[in-house]
Predict the structure.
Amino acid sequence: MKITGKNALKVLQENASRFDPESCRLKNECLETLSKSPLPALSRLAGYHDLLLFLLAHPHNSQTVTQTEKELARISSQLSKHKNNPSSQLESSGLPFTHVVTSFSHDILAWILQQKELRVDINSMTENADELNDLLKLTLPSLERDQTSFGYDANELFENLQVNTNQKLPFLIAELSTYHNHPVLKDYLFEKLALELKLWSHKSSFSRSYNRFSLRPFFYHSEILKKFDHRSLFDTALPEATNLTGTQREQLVKTIRCSLLLMARETDPATYLDESSLRYFELERGIAIAIYGMTETRQLPLESYVGYTLFKNGFPSAYGGAWVFGKRALFGMNIFESFRGGESGYLMCQLLRTYRQVFSISNFEVEPYQFGKNNPDGIRSGAFWFYYRFGFRPMEPALKKLAESEQKKIAAKKEYRSPYNTMERFTESYINLELEPLQQASVADFSVYISAMMAGKFKSNRALAIEHCLQKFNLPKTNATVEFALVANALKITDQNTIDLIRELAAAKAKDLYYYQQLLLRLLRHPAFKALT
């Protein structure tokens, strides 16, 4: 095939995930041709950029890396010429020198303001002046509090408080930081401001092109791995977590957060990341996985919400997390659009392998949205069968039988496709991957016992119940201790060894995600807990 300026981009797209000798030759020839042609128009530039990212995450040789890096640099150079007036067509694209326009949480904004190369401005805020006055009435020093009682609009209030335009956002962030130990209230008050922010940088490093983290050379592909023994992979021993320097750890956290900010997204584990919990595993085929828990004030009472970022040849390629409770975990995965069409199944199995071995998980559940509930794209893409291929099955017996029937039809007739309404039916149930037989209570199982205890012994007086249970087990009041004290009382646990274990658990919850999980696994083996299943 002859490569020309007109067909080079199309040919490159068609061969991006192919690794036979002819496809590899065509990719390099296309990149050479494109490098000598004008860059695509703005309406198609983001698509070309994402294709380059896919090639860099899945290169077949060093020539591809060199050519692709040069094209990314050319895009960056072109966009830098307009960095003071970027095109709205590329808004929130994550390309160099473009703006991200969205809403962010208080805590991530506080972090952004500490990053010297990042800039963030208020694009708009609530038009209801009462919201701002009511907020500042709670935070201002008493001698300034009267300013909130004169009916000023936002601009007049800022003017009287002598807060200039450039300081409005830092001022608001600082005022609400006084509620750091009351995160639910802080979030509620901050959301009332209805801030829309504009985030950008005059450095190309803040872009999906260059937001990377890698400690290894590129892994070169000879194929896109589709067929592999996933059960064997789950059991393949993980390497030890990489020992990161302080600088590397700081850069990794920054890369994790920026990977989401550049796509106008946030996740709780990334925003409230507890750096002491951060672990980084370097795996096969250019894959690395960072896992991390949340700071104490943001933790769930019993479960551990453990986030992850998966890197492919240094690029953040997937993100999500798992809600870990004993040997059970609710798992969610999101692959960044630039990296779809690659080794999605292998990436997921590497994530499951990591969680399985770090936390001793034997059962993974996936909620229906991940494979189509209120998500037509998930239905049309056949996401359910993606999970089914790796051992996930509906938890509802009737749907499990339906899936078995549909799978037989697919095996018997290659062109057969399950009807849309059948695929929708599968979203009526969670799906579950059972690596080992498990009988373990879920968090939801405890609520029935606690509610019955509240209604009976304490006449629905929650405050009295909490005070009684904490005193009974001699526990300080924290999220974790309250929940465990209620559970222990509801289950009539009295032996001292178990009570001591609960105390140790409560202390570990705030400080050590991994030790907490070890202790929780011990507690859940107690007969009173096993009786819930």
